[in-house]
Design brief:
Layout lengths: L4 H11 L3 H11 L4 H24 L5 H28 L7 H16 L1 H20 L5 H17 L12 E7 L5 E6 L5 H12 L18 E6 L13 H6 L6
Helix pairs in contact: 1-5, 6-7
Length: 252
């Protein structure tokens, strides 16, 4: 959950409202008899294996057979849609009950209920990685305290998202253990106050995923804001002072 971030959550939530999810719901509600279902499972398993083998064989003589397979797949899907659409019409009385639609919306509701847990998991996963590097014994209390402080800071400085801080950034570099060191090159006219905001911007993972290596956001251990012309520090670097004091870190 920590590495997937919120992207997978939003994708899963949005897809749970789509036509595909509704069609899946209909398939689960209007089924055949047990023996017909077992035969269908066997048939579709064999059909899928044959279809995949044809598609990945790469042989020219299988091209027409591949077309037949694709057309048959479309025909099966079309027949299923007709069959279950008829079931919807024939059993319309079921659709008048609230329980019927509650069953459909239970997936997106479940995802939404778990949203706070997913949000908490992201910084928890990040700080756990940091602690594994810095201390021999990781405590649950310490992790929870770090996460709560992080979330409070994100709420407090949420306005940084909308201040177009990226306009002052020339380039960024990541390095160190687990890419926890951030070097941010700023244009020379950037003020110290703006540099501090940019530093906080990265400390709280507000920057877009594209600026991180492999699109993976991390909570940095060290952030350096440097001038474009001479690469000198614009402000004193941030270096996880709290962890440094608590775990007697010298240099990271």
């Amino acid at each position: 959950m920590g590495t997937s971030r919120l992207t997978n959550f939003w994708n899963a939530l949005s897809s749970s409202f789509g036509f595909g999810e509704f069609f899946k719901f209909i398939l689960e509600n209007y089924t055949f008899s047990y023996w017909i279902e077992m035969l269908l499972v066997f048939f579709f398993t064999v059909f899928v294996f044959v279809t995949v083998a044809i598609q990945y064989s790469g042989k020219h003589e299988y091209r027409e057979l591949n077309k037949v397979s694709n057309n048959l797949t479309m025909l099966i899907g079309f027949l299923l849609i007709i069959l279950f659409s008829w079931q919807l019409i024939a059993k319309w009385q079921l659709e008048l009950h609230l329980v019927y639609w509650i069953n459909f919306f239970i997936a997106p509701v479940t995802w939404t209920v778990n949203l706070p847990l997913i949000i908490l998991t992201i910084p928890l996963f990040e700080y756990d990685n940091i602690d594994q590097l810095c201390v021999f014994k990781v405590t649950s209390r310490n992790l929870i305290e770090q996460v709560l402080v992080f979330l409070v800071m994100r709420i407090k400085f949420n306005r940084l998202r909308f201040q177009k801080l990226e306009n002052n950034i020339i380039e960024t570099h990541q390095g160190g253990v687990l890419n926890r060191r951030m070097i941010i090159i700023l244009c020379d006219e950037t003020s110290a106050d703006k540099a501090k905001k940019i530093e906080m911007y990265y400390k709280l993972m507000f920057a877009g995923g594209s600026v991180y290596k492999k699109n993976k956001k991390v909570i940095p251990i060290r952030v350096e804001c440097r001038k474009e012309s001479n690469r000198e520090l614009l402000i004193p670097p941030y270096e996880c002072s709290q962890l440094k004091e608590e775990y007697k870190m010298k240099n990271f």
